[in-house]
Design a protein that fits this description.
Number of strands: 12
Order of helices and strands: HHEEHHEHEEHEEHHEHEEHHHHHHHEEH
Radius of gyration: 30 Å
Helix content: 40-55%
Oligomer: single chain
Length: about 500
């Protein structure tokens, strides 16, 4: 019985292989005719041919205005004559079935002299439905440009080239995804970007084996140096101005057709805490705001673990004036500090997720009203103390100061290991978690470049735009982390000269 089953399976595989070998344009058309939006008709008269296309992917006006009048008014006997007469660029004559399938599915018009002809004429007539360029929704800035990427790859490249009108801006286009056949563009400035980084990105994208690539986040997860790390290793941004700025530093950009976000690499951990506003404000304000963000992140991660550690193991660290307040607030609480914190943290996460998934107006209402109602009810019911409620609320508020959404999610996640460490070993557990994550960051890399730079390895020159941003005239060289071919931005001596018009 087993031998018969195995023999029948081998016969089926043999038939499938033979069917693939004899696959032709006729079989492709037969498959397409099962779709309602596939149209095919015969043109008779001075020119006899068969025209086929997918109407949902093709511009009908283009067909009726640029193609049909030429075919009706001229006596064209061959595909070469049609190619010469039709006033359209990039017309292709081919018998390659894979090329025919690709072009037709992307909106090209297919012309055959006969229904059974294997040689076809392909006329590009793709129609692309996309939204207009709008303001950034995730990385909103008070000052600076108000343009964001959209889902069209060509539009996004236009936004980049508009800001960098350089012949050295090189774009390499790849096709990824066994089924989706998604266009992916890798772009960089030739002469500045390190070609080793470029080749690494191109090789990793070409090596992707997956059936669908729908968004740039798929690329992020598949080409990262360490896919098991909670820390992002490629920067995800929706702002063309931010991408332009890092390209000039020697970094590489990645755009995916259908995604309104771009990826930049290699990157550093400090870059996730810098906002676009930092470069549009004076360096004093920009440096102050960046330091506030870094402090807010540390506060968000360590505040609730410190609360648990101190109340569980280190009561002597609490000032006497504050001790009475904490004792009063926790007098009727039936839970230990760690369980109390976890309940509030999970409540905050539930409110955050509910507000993010609901429509914007409803989500804001749910977040505000839900937080007030649940917080007040929890304190009145004796499930949590009002002191902890204030601490958790401030920690949640501090986590929102991160300008990049990716690192915000990481900050939310790593709070829980710190909480567990604080519950088990107190301040020693917090120190162990801190040492673990710092050690992990020192080993983490982006395209083989250290993510923890410029702290490790220490690079004094790159500190000019790390925790603080010094004036532009002090940043005469590009960051060392990208290993740019041309490391000099400008002549610092000339930049410091300020001459009046009468000198």
């Amino acid at each position: 019985m087993w031998r018969r089953l195995k023999k029948s399976q081998n016969n089926i595989r043999t038939r499938q292989k033979s069917m693939k070998q004899v696959e032709s344009v006729d079989s492709l058309i037969l498959t397409l005719t099962q779709s309602k939006d596939y149209l095919s008709f015969s043109l008779t008269g001075s020119t006899n041919c068969v025209i086929s296309y997918i109407k949902t992917m093709t511009q009908p006006k283009f067909l009726h205005q640029s193609v049909l009048p030429v075919l009706k008014n001229n006596s064209l006997k061959t595909l070469e004559e049609m190619k010469e007469e039709i006033p359209v660029e990039n017309i292709l004559i081919t018998t390659d079935l894979e090329e025919i399938r690709k072009k037709v599915m992307n909106g090209s018009i297919m012309i055959q002299l006969k229904e059974t002809a294997q040689e076809v004429l392909l006329i590009p007539a793709t129609t692309v439905e996309t939204r207009k360029v709008s303001i950034p929704e995730v990385e909103f800035s008070v000052v600076g440009p108000k343009e964001a990427f959209v889902e069209s790859l060509d539009t996004n490249l236009n936004l980049i080239r508009k800001r960098l009108p350089l012949p050295e801006l090189t774009v390499r286009e790849l096709v990824v995804g066994k089924i989706t056949k998604t266009r992916v563009a890798v772009f960089y400035i030739d002469g500045i970007a390190n070609l080793e980084n470029v080749n690494t990105v191109v090789q990793r994208i070409n090596d992707i084996e997956y059936d669908q690539i729908i968004d740039s986040s798929f690329i992020t997860q598949m080409i990262a140096d360490n896919s098991n790390s909670p820390f992002p290793q490629l920067l995800d941004t929706e702002r063309p101005d931010r991408v332009t700025g890092v390209l000039v530093e020697g970094k590489i950009g990645i755009l995916v057709d259908g995604s309104p976000h771009a990826l930049t690499c290699p990157t550093t951990i400090v870059e996730f805490f810098s906002a676009s506003d930092d470069y549009y404000l004076t360096w004093h304000l920009a440096s102050s705001l960046r330091l506030v963000r870094l402090f807010a992140v540390i506060f968000s991660v360590l505040t609730t673990p410190l609360y648990v550690a101190i109340l569980t193991y280190h009561h002597e660290m609490i000032p006497e004036d504050l001790m009475s307040t904490i004792i009063t607030s926790r007098a009727d609480i039936p839970f230990p500090p760690v369980l109390e914190v976890i309940i509030l943290e999970l409540t905050i996460e539930l409110l955050r997720e509910a507000g993010a998934r609901l429509p914007s107006k409803v989500g804001q209402t749910i977040g505000i009203v839900g937080g007030i109602v649940i917080g007040t009810a929890a304190v009145d019911a004796g499930l949590t103390s009002n002191v902890l409620l204030i601490i958790v609320a401030l920690a949640a508020l501090a986590s929102f100061t991160t300008p990049v959404y990716q690192i915000g999610n990481t900050i939310r996640l790593i709070r829980f290991p710190f909480l567990m460490g604080a519950q088990m070993w107190g301040l020693i557990g917090i120190s162990m978690c801190m040492a673990f994550f710092i050690g992990h960051l020192t080993k983490l890399s982006s395209l083989g470049r250290p993510v923890f730079a410029p702290l490790y390895p220490l690079r004094i020159r790159d500190l000019k735009d790390a925790f603080v941003r010094l004036p532009f005239n002090k940043q005469s060289k590009r960051p060392m982390q990208t290993r740019p071919i041309d490391s000099v931005r400008f002549n610092p001596k000339r930049a410091n000269e300020k001459r009046d018009i009468d000198e």
